[in-house]
């Protein structure tokens, strides 16, 4: 007679996934705080939203995520967290800072292109041709979106 194993029962001695469990508990607490803070606000309905409608909707979504992570933390053991790499973090930070410094003086095209080049340097897998092509596409897309579609007063070129 075949024997069946129930996979969702935690074997003896297996540890909890504490990061997921604590994160889920944190989300549940934030959700409870949001529900308590908006208790006196009228919620209304989807057709006629009151001031408490959106905060409660977001709190409900947070509660769902909190229950998910708490349940996952109880059901599986901690898999471990990969060691933090400095190169990607520094590359992205430098790219964002460069964009912020260049946007007004050099324009949206140069700032976007420079940010893509610097962000690509954060990865060892980047290929120069692909990065240049992607940078040109991002710069063109940024101009189309922010300047043409949204009509934001952002300089496109330095002149």
Automatic annotation (TrEMBL):
The keyword Plastid does not apply. InterPro entries: DUF1468. Keywords: Membrane, Transmembrane, Transmembrane helix. Residues 22-155 form the DUF1468 domain. The chain crosses the membrane at residues 21-41, 53-71, 92-122, 128-147. This is Tripartite tricarboxylate transporter TctB family protein. It comes from Azospirillum endophyticum.
């Amino acid at each position: 007679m075949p024997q069946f194993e129930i996979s969702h029962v935690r074997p003896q001695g297996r540890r909890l996934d504490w990061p997921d469990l604590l994160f889920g508990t944190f989300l549940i607490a934030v959700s409870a705080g949001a529900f308590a803070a908006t208790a006196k606000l009228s919620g209304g309905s989807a057709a006629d939203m009151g001031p408490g409608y959106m905060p409660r909707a977001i709190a409900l979504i947070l509660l769902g995520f909190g229950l998910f992570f708490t349940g996952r933390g109880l059901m599986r053991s901690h898999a471990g967290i990969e060691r933090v790499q400095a190169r990607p973090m520094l590359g992205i930070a430098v790219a964002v800072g460069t964009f912020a410094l260049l946007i007004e003086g050099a324009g949206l095209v140069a700032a976007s292109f420079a940010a893509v080049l610097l962000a690509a340097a954060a990865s060892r897998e980047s290929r120069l041709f692909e990065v240049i092509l992607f940078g040109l596409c991002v710069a063109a897309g940024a101009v189309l979106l922010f300047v043409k579609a949204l009509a934001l007063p952002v300089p496109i070129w330095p002149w």
